Amino acid sequence: MEKSAAKTRRLCAGLLAFVLVELASIIAPQKMFGAVSWQYLQSLRLRKTEKYFFTAQDCSFAVNIENVSPDKISAAINDVPQGASFVSMKKENYAPSTGTSESYGTRLIMTFRFNTPGSYQFRAIDVQVDTWWAHIPFETVYVYENPSIVQPSIKVTFDDSRYSSASRTLNMSAGQHLKFTLNIRYATQVYDLTWKIPENSLFMEVESYDITRQNITSEEFNPNTIPVAKFDWQPLAEGVYSFPKFSMTAMSLGGIRYNVEVPMLTEIKVGPPLERREYYDDDEPEIYANAFSDSIEQSASGASVYTEVEDIDALLELHKTERHSIPIFSAARKERREIERGAGLNSAAWEPSVPLLIVIAGIFAVLVFLSVLLFVLKKIPAASVCLAFSVVFLALGLFYARWTFQKIALYTGGEIAQIPEEGSGAGVSISKGSVVHVQKETGDWSYIRCNDTYGWVMNDTLMFID
């Protein structure tokens, strides 16, 4: 009986010792079986030491193994992907940065060299630390062409998603605007950007970016394209056009200047302008006005035809009268629209009304006053409603004020210019009495927009509506 009890006690003691050993291996494996645990090794990753990897130069992955000296670590590399070659493996003592929770240990560095750009995934390396074996994987990396030896490249992007620089042919209509941006890659500066404008078209540089103004001083690699300049091109007649020709000099990240060629579409087919529909009393402004044909008179067949405005001063006065009256009660609007319809002109269905703007501003002021008063009287729900309405009228007033105070004029008629110089006609005319929006002014010239047509005119050909 005593022997059986002693045997049971020994068995229980053995089981207790086994459980304690297992718990110790989980709670403090570094104390029982060495400096690190197998679970810790499995959590490690070899990560790249530089932000970008490039071809034709040494590129390194590294991992920090805490609480282990270099002499207790051995590693073996497996096969490397095609296009990459192994250079070296290095172990060095690692001291953590101040303020981090890391401990002293070993930094394992694996260095490779790449021959071709692309995405690379390496097989995990076999690592032995004390008595533990583990596989430490690499993070996936993308290798870029070495920017010090690669030539800058240009890419064209279009505002209209229907068009692509990869297309060989582009179809559009006469008078349509083609807006596009030149973008460059692997460059720090762009010099001497010039272009050749195709005939029978309007062309404008809408915006230039920092890279053309030499405001980019950093030579840090950027894998993305950088915008150079944005343009607006408007073919005026039917036919087959070549894409505008550009030339520029670009400074590469390696400090070498290159003459960069801009990729061009094979051809751009320009069809007739969009057809004009009948002008009803409630129509909104048409996209394409009478910019590509002269005004005509009534035909014998009874088709809709037009005659030129005879008294542009009277038309101007009607615009001004309408602007300074309440829209619904304005008799000038109907008379103005009759003249424009007879001349085949397109303009806004309503002139912005100054009295209406004053009414909106007055309502906003009253709502603000009521909101403050109701808050003082502690009528919070009613005050909140008034405040919400005041915000709505503020937004409406700002929008309407911007519309009301934009620079609008009547054009006395004639050909517009491609640049603000005499004799630089663009080959397109705008009818007498047309409403134009002044975009900017330079000396005696103004850059105007008439529906979807842009160009320069002399200031004395404009009669402002104020």
Condensed summary:
This protein is α+β, with helices and mostly antiparallel strands and 466 residues long. It has helices at 2-27, 29-33, 38-42, 312-323, 331-343, 354-376, 380-404; strands spanning 47-48, 53-54, 58-66, 73-76, 84-94, 105-114, 118-120, 125-129, 132-136, 141-144, 153-158, 169-173, 178-185, 189-196, 201-208, 226-235, 239-241, 245-251, 257-261, 267-271, 408-411, 414-417, 425-430, 434-442, 445-450, 453-458, 462-464.
Protein model, in words:
The protein has 466 residues and is α+β, with helices and mostly antiparallel strands. The protein contains 7 helices and 27 strands. About 8% of the residues have low confidence. The longest helix has 26 residues. The strands form 8 sheets. The protein has a 5-stranded antiparallel sheet, with no helix packed on it. A 4-stranded antiparallel sheet has the order 1-3-6-5, with no helix packed on it. α4 packs antiparallel against α5 and α6 runs antiparallel to α7.
Q: Any idea what the shape is?
A: elongated
Helix content: 10-25%
Amount of beta strand: 25-35%
Number of strands: 27
Cα Rg: 38 Å
Overall pLDDT? 78
**Structure class:** alpha+beta
**Head-to-tail CA distance between termini:** 119 Å
- Give the number of helices: 7
Low-confidence stretches: 25-34, 276-304
Sketch the major β-sheet.
5 strands, antiparallel
Strand order of the largest sheet: 26-25-24-21-27
Question: Topology of this protein?
Answer:
Elements: H1 2-27, H2 29-33, H3 38-42, E1 47-48, E2 53-54, E3 58-66, E4 73-76, E5 84-94, E6 105-114, E7 118-120, E8 125-129, E9 132-136, E10 141-144, E11 153-158, E12 169-173, E13 178-185, E14 189-196, E15 201-208, E16 226-235, E17 239-241, E18 245-251, E19 257-261, E20 267-271, H4 312-323, H5 331-343, H6 354-376, H7 380-404, E21 408-411, E22 414-417, E23 425-430, E24 434-442, E25 445-450, E26 453-458, E27 462-464
Helix pairs in contact: 4-5, 6-7
